[in-house]
UniProtKB/TrEMBL annotation:
GO terms of molecular function: antiporter activity; xenobiotic transmembrane transporter activity
Annotated organism of origin: Paenibacillus polysaccharolyticus
Organism lineage: Bacteria, Bacillati, Bacillota, Bacilli, Bacillales
GO-annotated biological processes: response to antibiotic
CDD domains, alphabetized: MATE_MepA_like (cd13143)
Family matches, as PANTHER family: SPORULATION PROTEIN YKVU (PTHR43823:SF4)
Bilayer topology term: Multi-pass membrane protein
Top-rank taxon, per record: Bacteria
Family: Belongs to the multi antimicrobial extrusion (MATE) (TC 2.A.66.1) family. MepA subfamily.
Pfam families reported for this sequence: MatE (PF01554)
Main location, first listed in the record: membrane
Membrane-crossing residue ranges in chain numbering: 18-38, 50-74, 95-115, 138-158, 170-190, 196-213, 234-257, 277-297, 318-338, 358-376, 388-411, 417-436
Keyword line: Antibiotic resistance, Cell membrane, Membrane, Transmembrane, Transmembrane helix, Transport
Protein name, entry field: Multidrug export protein MepA
Amino acid sequence: MSTNWTHPLERQTVGKAFISYLVPSVLGMLVIAFNFIIDGIMVGHKLGSTAMAGIGIASPVYTLFVAMSLWIGMGGATLYSNHMGRKENQKAKEVFTKSIILISLVTVVIGYTAFTFKDKLVYALGANADTFPFASDYMNIMLLFGFVFTIENALSVFVRNDGGPNTSMYAQITFAVANIVINYITLYVLEWGVRGVALGTIVSAALALLVLFSHFFKKSNNLTFTRFTWSTKLLCMIALIGFPSFLAELGMSVFSVSHNISTERIGGTDGVASFTVLNYIHGVVLMAFLGLASAAQPLISYYHGAQRMEQVQETIRIAVKTALTCGVVLLLIVQVGAPYFVQIFGNFSSSVTDNAVYGLRIFTIAYVFMGVNFVMSTYFQSIGNAKMAIWITAAREMIIMIALIAILPSFLGVTGVWLAVPLSEMIVLITIALYYRKRSLTERLNLLQAK
């Protein structure tokens, strides 16, 4: 690294820095999200709604691998930026080295262990006789080769934190474009079915990994592998700080499984297909909010490490306002365009289409609250308040959501399924507001006592 090098955040105002991270982060995430939608369109038109349901059932395995990569990647990258903010570059390099080695080992072990009982796993995730063949084909590839995109995903987080948001975006674009091309070939030319879709994901992640490697050749690069000794304390810190990110992604698995089981029980295979269509569209919004939170995280972590608390608070104010505005706009867009969004995935039966449109219009109320919850979870995670970050994530995606999805359908039928997430997000945001109010009062009392 050049001796004259300074971190980009030292040379920019908070507003400009946030935009410089926000644009490539959100664009990269949206490109990946639209890639998944195009996948859904191709699968829906080529293989039908049952194949889509099968992929939806197996998708928690993909989500679990992403969760593992973000657990270690976000935990390590947050510590990395903290050290960079303190000008402790060698410690930052040690954190990077340990994190990449750890994610490689962990995901290989998990994937090959789960592969030994894959059939039982498929049924446990909600498959029936119709969807099992498709879910099984998708899962086999994911379990054997999923370590490729876990390494790519974790490295992308580190590159972004090392002042390379554009490189991360280029890698995401590479992944998306390659995946679309490869999936078209495997589906329509080679006719490999769902297995080809899964294979396309792995190959595309490998190509994106090559793009990320280009960061190592830049003069500004601080991501270099270095010799180290294993430290239990450091591993625990990485695990604790990154745990909210793991929960956030694992929560998506809980979200998918719980909704798959509930919709299958109420509406059968058509019900699962309706939810899968909704989940494709929802994935776009999730990726946008994730991109927003990912843009704020490097700034908060770096400023916190440098003890520049005014910049931390300014970053949060900008991010929350952006999230709230985006949530309202997305809600309005989906309310108006729901029938058109559903139709692009295929010519389904009226029961699938009507239920998906109805569910989408109720479900998207959550977006008004969801983006702010994402930002606040990232904020607490980045400043080391893992307890609050874990509460936000676990409550909105597991504790409260599962309770609501278990109770509401008994009274409201399928409407209760669609309402579970909006109500969960709203309740969690209320708890955040109460926490802030309590903390503000405590700080005022401490100031009065100090005087």
